[in-house]
Design a protein that fits this description.
Elements: E1 3-8, H1 10-27, H2 39-51, E2 56-62, E3 65-74, H3 80-88, E4 97-104, H4 113-127, E5 132-138, H5 155-160, E6 164-175, E7 184-194
Length: about 200
């Protein structure tokens, strides 16, 4: 096994989109996302990274196989749903880098790849001149019937990385949960860090 972490932009980013679509569908199906994804939706959703200046995918590869990825782009290029709650609190989206999704094949967890995903995206953001970053984490009630008994929130990991919850700042975004027939709005907590 030869694990490599690659920062992908431009044509390399475009070439990774198909593999990323499959990873998102697979990994996000599990708790806490419970995402019922489709290839058609993923293809359209991810295309924006290929069209956004400053976007990045940090890919984790086992040989030639993409086994994990983390995405990011300037917040000013993100959907308005992600910008509006921060604007309402006085933040300027044009000054913030958005750390979007992170997905990793469960067989590769616990090897420090999550830290590398943050390291590489933060380095990319700093190289573009950004001094702060945000990401969103899905909010699910502790009493949710699909919550695994052994589930451990990632809050301690994020705090150790220097991120903090922006209290009272949440984003809502629609997707179809496993078992749902329609998309519904899901709340997500915004986390923030200054570099």
């Amino acid at each position: 096994m030869t694990l490599q972490i690659r920062r992908l932009i431009g044509e390399d980013l475009k070439l990774a989109l198909g593999g990323l679509a499959h990873l998102r569908i697979s990994v996000f199906r599990a708790w806490p996302y419970l995402y019922e994804g489709t290839e058609d939706y993923e293809t359209k959703y991810l295309q924006r990274y290929a069209e956004t200046e400053g976007a990045v995918i940090v890919g984790a590869y086992d040989g030639d196989r993409l086994i994990g990825a983390a995405t990011g782009e300037p917040l000013g290029s993100e959907y308005e749903a992600f910008q509006a709650p921060l604007k309402a609190k006085g933040f300027d989206p044009d000054n913030i880098f958005y750390m979007a999704e992170s997905v990793l094949d469960p067989a590769y967890r616990g090897r420090g790849i999550g830290h590398l995903f943050f390291d590489e995206r933060e380095a990319h953001a700093k190289a573009l001149g950004f001094e702060e970053a945000v990401f969103c984490a899905v909010i699910r009630p502790e009493s949710h019937p699909l919550r695994p008994a052994e589930y451990q929130p990632l809050d301690p990991f994020w705090v150790k990385r220097g991120y903090a919850k922006l209290e009272g700042v949440t984003v809502t975004f629609p997707w179809r949960d496993v078992g749902e027939t329609e998309e519904t709005e899901k709340p997500m907590q915004v986390w923030h860090r200054r570099f």
